[in-house]
Amino acid sequence: MLGEVLQWQYPADAVLSHWFRAHSNAGLRDRGEIAEAVFDVLRHLRRYRQFAESGQGAATRRLAILGLASVWPRSTLDPGLDEHEKPWLDHVQGFALDALPPGVRHSVPEWLETRLAALPDADALLRALNQPAPLDLRVNPFKTDRDAVLRAWSQGPEAKWAAQPTPYSPWGLRIQGRPPVNRWRSFERGEIEVQDEGSQLLAALVAPKRGEMVIDYCAGAGGKTLLLGALMRSTGRLYAFDVSAARLARAKPRFARSGLSNIVPVVIAERHDQRVKRLRGKAHRVLVDAPCSGLGTLRRNPDLKWRQHPDTLAQLLLAQAAILRDAAACVRPGGRLVYASCSLLPEENEQQVQAFLADNPDFILLDAGAVLADRGIALPLSGPMLRLRPDVHGTDGFFAAVMQRAKPAAGGADADAAVDTKADTGGDADAAVDAAADTDRALSADGAAAAPGALDQSAAE
Question: What is the pTM of this model?
Answer without folding.
Answer: 0.87
